[in-house]
Amino acid sequence: MKQITIACKNIKKSFKSGSQLFQILHGIDFTAYSNEMIMLMGPSGSGKTTLISIIGGILNADSGECAVMGKEINALPDQEKTAFRGKNIGFLFQHFTLVPTLNALENAAIPLLCQGITREVSFKKSHEVLTSMGLDLDMDKNPNQLSGGQQQRVAMARACVTEPAIILCDEPTSFLDFERGQKIMAILKELQTKNNCTIIVVTHDARILPFADRIINIEDGVIKETTT
Ligand SMILES: Nc1ncnc2c1ncn2[C@@H]1O[C@H](COP(=O)(O)OP(=O)(O)OP(=O)(O)O)[C@@H](O)[C@H]1O
Ligand SMILES: [Mg+2]
C-alpha cells in the first residue's frame, strides 16, 4: 500500500530583496507517496528550487506545514534536522555543490561517511554507484577536472549513495545528453521500485517525462495542474 511520505499544506515563502518583499510560494498544497516519481515543472523563477529546498529542510517556509516522513521538518532544531536529512533525504542541487578539494569517489561517499560508516564500506558503495553512472574512469578526479555532465553525475551519486527514502533532484539531466539522461533516470527508477522511495525531479527536460508517475506544474508560486 502507498504511504504518504511528504505532506505540504499551504506553504508560503517570500524573499527580501532590498526593502522589497517578494512572495514566491503563495500557498502550496501537495502530497507525495512512497514508490512514486513526481516531475515538478514550471517556468524559470516559479519557485521549484525553493519548494524542494523547503521539503529537503534546506530552507524554512514562512508559514504552512511540511511533514516529511511524518516529521514537521521546518520545526526541527538544526542538529536534528541535519541528522534527519542525512538519514532520509538525498538532494541533488541544481548547481551540484561538490566539494572542490575532494575527488569524485570522496564526494559521492560524503553522506555515508557522515553517518559514521567506515571509509572502506563507504568508498566501496561510492565506487559501485559511480560505476553504474558511467564514471569508472573518473573516480580520482576533482570536480574542476570533470565536465559539467560528469560533475552532475557525481552529485547524483552523492544524492543516491545512501539509498534514502526521499530523493530530491533539481534538474538532474540538464548537462546530460539523451542517452546518459535516460540511463540516470533508469537508475533512479530502479531505486524507486527497489526501495519504495519517493523521488521528486525538478525538470525542464521533456525527454524524461515518460519516467514520471505524476507531473505537477508550478506557476507563479501555486500548483496549477496535476496530470496523472
Ligand atoms: N535566496 C534568495 N533571495 C532572494 N530571492 C530569491 C532567493 N532564492 C530564490 N529567489 C527568487 O525566488 C524566485 C524563485 O526562485 P527558484 O530558484 O525557486 O526558481 P526556479 O523555479 O527553481 O527557477 P529555475 O527554473 O530558473 O531554476 C526567483 O524569482 C528568485 O529570484
Ligand atoms: Mg531552480
Structure description:
By secondary structure, the chain is an alpha/beta fold. The protein has a single domain, classed as Rossmann fold, CATH 3.40.50.300. The protein has 6 helices and 10 strands, in the order βββαββαβαααβαβββ. The chain has helices at 48-55, 78-88, 104-114, 119-132, 148-160, 178-195; strands at residues 4-17, 20-33, 36-41, 63-68, 71-72, 89-92, 166-170, 198-202, 214-219, 222-227. Strands 6-7-8-3-9-10 form a 6-stranded mixed beta sheet. Strands 2-1-4-5 form a 4-stranded antiparallel beta sheet, with helices on one face. The longest helix is centred in the C-terminal third of the chain and has 18 residues, at 178-195. 40% of the residues are buried. The mean pLDDT is 95. Magnesium ion is lined by residues 48-49, 94, 170.
Helix count equals 6
Helix content: 25-40%
Question: Roughly how many Å is the radius of gyration?
Answer: 17 Å
- Which of globular, elongated, flat, extended, rod-shaped describes the shape? globular
Note the main sheet. Answer: 6 strands, mixed
Might you state the CATH topology name?
Rossmann fold
